[in-house]
Amino acid sequence: MAKIVLNDVSKIHRGGVEALRDVSLDLPDGAITAVTGPAGAGKTTLLRLIAAQDAPTAGTVEVGDAVSQSWRLGRSKVVEFAERGALKGSRNVYDTMAAGLTERGLKRSEAEAAVLKAADAVELGPFMARRVSSLSDGERTRVILGRAFAHQPRAILLDDPFAGLDAVRRMALRRELRALKAAGATILLATHDWTDALALADHLVVLDRGHLVASGPARALYDRPPTAEAARLIGDPPMNVLPVRANQTGLSLEDGTHFGATSVMTTATFALLGVRPEALFAVDDERAPHAAATFPVRVEEIERGANVNLVHGFVGSHAFVGRVAGHVEAPASGLLKLGAAREALVLFDAETGAAA
Ligand SMILES: Nc1ncnc2c1ncn2[C@@H]1O[C@H](COP(=O)(O)OP(=O)(O)OP(=O)(O)O)[C@@H](O)[C@H]1O
């Protein structure tokens, strides 16, 4: 197992791009951490620094007992950084998985046993002699994972491991990663995909434009984001966040659109009100539970799915999304009332954005 600690880490790439700024993190060992954030947030840069493939411009990175005073020192023994782009197409699968094992001190026979065992685990046995360039994206991902298994590192870093995998392989990979965790590995994966992140992660790190937006236990961060900024970045679709004004009659938008929500106590006149898309339900549905707040949504589009519908529209002038179960239809007026229970409403400070 290996705990990963970053102290005030910044990384300025050549050309002056500040990919990370003053990031401090303390990641639990023996857990799965998902590093999330929009394109260009700094996810790959963070993984590369932890793997000692690149040096921080400032700050220190510690992995287990390998500290980065000299930033490369000892790190290769504890971290396997699995980058799809780094696979050599002309190598066969066996050599790709075996590369570096003897340098780590394994005898040839031990290296061979480790590779064959790992290949078995990721069902790559029949592929051993195939060139990497002849493999599909999904098969390459399995090579990457197989290599990580064979090396038995204490921390495994995976950059976008689910890209290019079909649904069945995604599920299989999630199972493999859980099994690796159960065997004691610390796993860090960068992903854009919230389904995978939330299905797997014990811990979430949210980055945006190089700064750390949030870090904490995945479920808690998802249910109660610490700031409005985090709320807008966590989940797909993320939480709706509306600027509201409070008085005795409840909460309203600046244009007077009223939500009720008298049960939401706030001493401030202005606040930000958050509600998760999947917490919303159509209030005309007589089976709907009692709504503590009602949002009149001017519907632009309803994306129909097998069990849930994504309602895209506006509340006042603010974009708003509902993920509503069952059949839902926009009324002739175009205004669909979506409600939420009291426990689904989150208030943030209007000035600081901190959760109330
Ligand atoms: N080697 C490099 N030289 C110069 N700039 C770089 C380099 N690597 C990354 N960057 C820049 O640093 C920022 C962060 O990039 P990074 O790849 O870490 O983000 P990311 O969150 O992984 O993005 P994506 O989700 O698109 O893969 C981006 O603006 C990127 O263009």
TrEMBL record:
SUPFAM superfamilies: MOP-like (SSF50331), P-loop containing nucleoside triphosphate hydrolases (SSF52540). The keyword ATP-binding applies. InterPro entries: AAA+_ATPase, ABC_transporter-like_ATP-bd, ABC_transpr_MalK/UgpC-like, Mo/tungstate-bd_C_term_dom, NA-bd_OB-fold, P-loop_NTPase. Residues 4-234 form the ABC transporter domain. One of its GO terms (molecular function) is ATP binding. The keyword Lipid metabolism does not apply. Keywords: ATP-binding, Nucleotide-binding, Transport. It comes from the Bacteria. It holds the Pfam family ABC_tran. Belongs to the ABC transporter superfamily. This is ATP-binding cassette domain-containing protein. It comes from Chelatococcus sambhunathii.
